[in-house]
Amino acid sequence: MTKSTTLIFVFYLICISAFSSPPPVIASANPEDVNNLAPTLATNNLELKQNFPNPFNKNTSIGFNSSQDQKGEFKVFDILGNLITKKYLDVNKGFNQITFERDDLKPGLYFFSIEVGGTIVVKKMTIRD
Fold it and tell me: Which of the four, 22, 45, 120, 121, has the lowest number of CB atoms within 10 Å?
């Protein structure tokens, strides 16, 4: 990533966390299922769920749906946009789940992204003591 691309990405992440309005594309929750009201970000080939639990202590699960079998990338960034973790994924069509281990990361706000088929979706997660 070039420096200007990194700055734009960090600005984007800050804007996402600073404003409470929902992202432009939201998959609607089932109105009959009042226990599943957390928004899910959806695109043509990727639907990313919010990590659970969030906040978390040791590890968290991240689920996502893909429209096809393909390669992907999972990344974690700190609040300044510094890349913390990068993992390559073999994504299957349908539901996929990965577990993120905290390891030695300090408590705080982090962003995670999944890139599949040229689509990048970013969400935030919180690590607590």
Answer: 22
For the chain, the domain total comes to 1
pTM of the model: 0.67
Asked if residue 14 belongs to a domain, the reply is yes
Q: What is the DSSP letter of 14?
A: H
Q: Report d(CA 53, CA 90) in Å as an integer.
A: 24
Q: What is the pLDDT of residues 46-77, one digit of tens each?
A: 889 999 999 999 999 999 999 899 999 999 99
Q: What tokens does 12 get?
A: 């984007």
Indicate whether 63 belongs to any domain. Answer: yes
3-state secondary structure at position 107: coil
Q: How far is CA 51 from CA 21, 56, 64, 124, in A?
A: 19, 9, 10, 8
